[in-house]
Amino acid sequence: MTTWVENPEGGRERGPRGIVRAWVEVLVRPRRFFENGVAPGDQAPGLVFAIVVAVAYTTGLFATTPARIPSLAGGPGVSALVALAAVALLLAPATLHLTAAIQTVLLVLTVRSRGGISETVQVLAYASAPCVLAGLPIPELRAVCALYGAILLFVGLSERHGVSVPHAAVAGGVPAALLFGYVFGGFEAMQSLLRGAGLL
């Protein structure tokens, strides 16, 4: 699950420009993006993309809600930097691959003919694109980011594994709940909105 292709055929452009282009394309033209922008066996751009999204999300969270910064040695500034480094080097890659492992098992159980594991990793990575903004303390925005991320996941699974979007939603429901509901705070945002509307 950690394959890194040196000279891949297809896949995403490397570097900052490639990350920005991938972000725009997956948000605006997701079906075309997942069809053309995911290369079997080439996880490098997707992994970097997921790390950038996770760091952007955490930075927004820390900047707008300082109480979320873990208490480490050296004060809040140093603590934030250490936490961001941990997100980039440990938490984001581990979360991505753990979620991909769960998704792979569910695909094995629900899809007869499917794409490879590396494609699943990339789909999960790029589906996180809306969550760049999910760290901002606006429940409506966070809920939309989480919902859109889940939709992108289902579209990506549909494209890469050759199933309908409803079938992909069944196969991807649990990973979507874990990633977008819990990790990126979609469930918390929805609860806040429901409380505000007097429904909870």
TrEMBL record:
InterPro entries listed in its UniProt record: Yip1_dom
Membrane topology: Multi-pass membrane protein
UniProt protein name: Yip1 domain-containing protein
Residue ranges of domain Yip1 in the record: 25-183
Tree of life domain: Archaea
Segments traversing the membrane: 47-69, 81-111, 123-156, 168-187
Localization, UniProt: Membrane
Naturally occurring in which organism (per UniProt): Halogeometricum limi
Keyword GTP-binding among record annotations: no
GO CC entries: membrane
Entry keyword Nucleotide-binding: no
Alphabetical keyword list: Membrane, Transmembrane, Transmembrane helix
